[in-house]
Amino acid sequence: MSVFKKFWDDVSSLWSLIVGLKVTGKNFADKNVTLHYPRETVTSGQLEGFRGPLELIGKPKDPAKPKCIACMMCVTACPSKCITVVKAKAPKPTEAELQAMKEAEERGEKVKKPKAPKEPAKFLYDFSLCSLCGSCVENCPAKALRYSSNVYLTVTDRKELKMDLLARLGAQAEAAAVETVVENPKNVEAEPVEKEAGTES
User: Fold this and answer.
1) What is the C-alpha to C-alpha distance for residues 94 and 106, in angstroms, rounded to an integer?
2) Would you say 66 and 56 are in contact if contact means Cβ atoms under 8 Å apart?
3) Most-buried pick from 41, 77, 81, 177 (CB within 10 A)?
4) Which residue has the higher pLDDT, 201 or 74?
5) Secondary structure tally for the chain: helices H, strands E
6) Which pLDDT score, from 0 to 100, does residue 186 have?
7) Res 188: pLDDT
């Protein structure tokens, strides 16, 4: 090894050490980003970029019903195979409807059979398998999926990480409705009065 090469290796090692010390010093002097839970809790502003378990997004007019159209794109895109979606089936026609369809067919008319609604009958999610890669959220054409901000999720059994997202959405919608009643009891009580007034007119 030549003297010049040894000198160059020493300089490179020293420079690497200086860069490392600079990074260490910067983080040492920066504001602390960890919190002493439960004495301190995370604010909503500190949750930017946080990825909690997936959750469905409800329709604006009916928050208990998901925007999901059961297109199966999330299931296809998920590399961890942690999402299971079962499409809703078409409603079974009643005896009267069957008789009416039969009569229409005999008359040579085109019969429209009931179609399956574009919504999931089941939406199951195994958080224990999820890598939070975001493929499902990015590929959802209905924008029906998002990450939750539940930073305090804890379980004692792995089975509890298997979630029914439809049930979860229903519970969230119910909790939001109760919260609205608690925060604005006067507005909620005033609604029936307004409706009655509108009916009378």
Assistant:
1) 18
2) yes
3) 77
4) 74
5) 6, 5
6) 65
7) 55
Structure confidence by residue, pLDDT tens digits, 100-129 = 888 888 888 888 888 889 999 999 999 999
What are the CA-CA distances from residue 169 to residues 124, 134, 150 (Å)?
12, 19, 14
Cα 148 to Cα 150: distance, rounded to the nearest angstrom: 6
Q: What is the pLDDT of residues 148-166, one digit of tens each?
A: 988 888 899 999 999 999 9
Q: What is the pLDDT of residue 196?
A: 44
Strand positions, DSSP E, 130-182: 145-147, 162-164
- Block residue for tokens 């839970």: 37
Query: Could you identify the residue written with the tokens 């059994």?
Result: 157
Q: Where are the beta strands (DSSP E) in 4-128?
A: 54-56, 83-87, 120-126
Burial zone of 59 (CB within 10 Å; 0-12 exposed, 13-18 middle, 19+ buried): middle
DSSP one-letter code for 91: P
Model's pTM, two decimal places? 0.67
Phi, psi of 122 (to 5 degrees): -140, 145
Say how far apart CA 54 and CA 85 lie, in whole Å: 14
Tokens 């409706």 appear where?
Answer: 195
Query: Comparing C-alpha atoms, which of 118, 131, 137 is closest to residue 55?
Result: 137
